[in-house]
Amino acid sequence: MRRTTLLLLVICGATFFAGLGRPAIGDSDEAFYAEAGREMVASGDWITPHYNFEPRFQKPILFYWIVSASYLAAGVDGSAARFGSALAGLSLALLTAACGRRWYDERTARLGGVIVATAFGYFSIGRLALPDLPLAFWVTLTTWAAIVGLCDGPERPRRWLLVAGAAAGLGFLTKGPVAIVVPALVVLPVCWVARRHARLRAGALAAAAAMAIAVAAPWFIAMGSIHGRAYIEGFFVGDNVERFATSRFNDPRPPWFYLPIVAGGLLPWTPLMLCGVTPFVGWVTRRWRTTDVTVRLILWSALPFLFFTASIGKQPRYILPILPPLALLLARTLERRLAAGDGRRDPLVRAAAASIGIVLVALGSLLMRALPLIVMIAPALVIVSAGAIMAAGVAVIAVAVAGPLRHIGVGVGIAGAVTLAGLQYGLSPAGRDPVQDMAALVLQHRHANEPVASYRVFVRNLVFYTGIKQDDLSDPNDLRTYLRSPRPVLLVVAADDLVRISRGDPLPARVLGEVLYFNASAVKLRTLLRPDPGKDLDRVLLVTNR
Q1: Which of 24, 84, 277, 458 could disulfide-link 462, Cβ–Cβ 3.0 to 4.6 Å?
Q2: Sheet of 490-494, strands arranged across
Q3: Domain ranges of the chain
Q4: Which residues contact 21 (CB under 8 A, 6 or more apart)?
Q5: Given phi > 0 = left and psi -120 to 50 = alpha, else beta, which region is 23?
């Protein structure tokens, strides 16, 4: 147990915490939480979150509190904003190991924890100031504690159910009703399947429900008293029901949307999932018997997947809570196959592991090819990072081809940690980032409290680095009206957009400064295969109308 915990601490240190402040807070949803936490500390208002100096009613308060507490402890910066997400990633790896240890054995626990610690899906979200990974932790803890308390017959079931209630309340305080709906979707069918062993403990369940209400209700009551009934209705209907059942917040996506998301989220382990196809088909067709625990994990993975697939508004990060049970299923499948072999056979495992190595080598090669676009990082660091990723891939291929099968899990885990660390240091700059350079330009040229606006670039994160209220312009006519204002104004705009909007209608725009910006969120495979700095790097300008 101690060896497993120490191993996970070391791996998570590399995958979740190393270089946590790299890069700057992105022009994405994380800017909402990073800036709201900064404004919470500055204003002293710990009840109502604010973003861009306006009330922000999206999402409950817990993650805002976590970000703000991190700022108070360590100062306002990107690493503090993301600390809560990284801590949730570590906690999920340890929780997965604890679940595997209780339901299977130490080897399965260790491998399951390593899979979670090195999964690309958790790595990508664990380094963003977003509430989704903390929510995944609370949902996982609620589900596991409730199943143990109701179905495993522990000595103190009430304690397990109280833990489930507290976790449900904290999850509700993180992102709302989904923190209760998803565990209920799993726990109720699991209890029905295990009804011969499950025990309905009405008193303990009532205590768990009371615990959840005691944790979550006070803040909602406070918000209702401050902002009225309209806030409560807007949150439960607008930010939850409409988010699930309409395209108001997210564009409609096809029913198969989450299949590649799950496959990508489990990388680099995804090819090894092929080892579970035959046992799963055998279980479905009743040719193979499986344990009650495996059935639990299958339900735990499948039912939330179907729930989120049924929603209209889909987002990749919504599916995060299903990765721990999938990791345990994969870990158990691999451990059983390795225990049944002679240490050298099993071509399926070897082929899957070799394909993982090939993917890592290709990933390192793509990072090397992207070198001309990564203008914010020393070329030597990019080259070293790409080389480390390729070397990790070659090592996995060597183990897959000629090494003992028992080393494959460890080899893929170490290679995954090296790869994730290499991506972090090879793609993410430290120190000055384009948005930070632009913020410095704004502060340098703002002498008389001029209004500041942005047009389709640095829309969300610039306010975090300037501390100045910012107007968001999204329509060309709004940009024209803004620059023709009778008072001096400052505008952040891409050079191409300014030229396009000014064509045939000259605008009063004097350039005060510029930065080069590589928009990683818009990267396509073509960008990596044939990088062209002239096309792929944007010139972002700070202009004034005076």
Answers
A1: 458
A2: 470-473, 452-455, 490-494, 538-544, 510-517
A3: 2-336, 344-427, 434-544
A4: 77, 78, 79, 82, 430
A5: beta
Q: Which sign, positive or negative, has the C-alpha torsion 395, 401, 404, 410?
A: positive
Q: For the chain, how many helices (H) and strands (E)?
A: 25, 7
Which two tokens mark 484?
């023709």
CB atoms within 10 A of CB 29: 18
Q: Where are the alpha helices (H) located in 75-131, listed in sequence order? A: 78-103, 106-118, 120-126
Q: Which of 473, 432, 431 is nearest to 451 (CA)?
A: 473
Contact of 423 with 387, CB cutoff 8 Å: no
pLDDT mean over 235-259: 68
Residues 6+ away with beta carbon under 8 Å from 338: 346, 349, 405, 406, 408, 409
Record the tokens describing residue 154, joined without a space.
């522990």
The tokens describing 538, both together, are 């944007």
- DSSP secondary structure letter of residue 542: E
Whether the upstream peptide bond of residue 49 has omega within 30° of 0, thus cis, is no
pLDDT band for position 264 (50/70/90)?
very high
Q: Which two tokens stand for residue 418?
A: 């090296």
- Residue 61 tokens read as 């308060």
Exposure string (b/e) for 435-463, b if CB count within 10 Å is 16 or more?
bbbbbbbbeeebeeebbbbbbbbbbbbbb
CB 98 within 8 Å of CB 143: no
Largest CA distance in the chain: 81
Q: Give the model confidence (pLDDT) of 20-48 as tens digits.
A: 988 899 888 999 999 999 999 999 999 99
Pairwise CA distance, residues 397 & 401, whole Å: 6
- What gap in Å lies between CA 24 and CA 472, rounded to an integer? 20
Phi, psi of 48 (to 5 degrees): -105, 115
DSSP 378: -
- The CATH classification number of 434-544 equals 3.40.190
Q: Cα angle at 71 between 67 and 76, to 5 degrees?
A: 110
- Tell whether the model's pLDDT for residue 430 goes beyond 60: yes
**Segment 180-204 mean pLDDT:** 81
DSSP-assigned letters across all residues of 286-329: TSS---HHHHHHHHHHHHHHHHHHH-SB--GGGGGGGHHHHHHH
The model's pTM: 0.92
Average pLDDT, the chain: 88
Length of the chain: 546
Q: Where are the beta strands (DSSP E) in 456-530?
A: 470-473, 490-494, 510-517
Separation between Cα atoms, residue 275 and residue 268, nearest integer Å: 14
How does pLDDT run across 92-106, given as a tens digit for each residue? 999 999 999 999 999
User: What is the distance between the alpha carbons of residues 9 and 124, in angstroms, rounded to a whole number?
Assistant: 18
Specify which residues 471 forms β-bridges with. Answer: 453
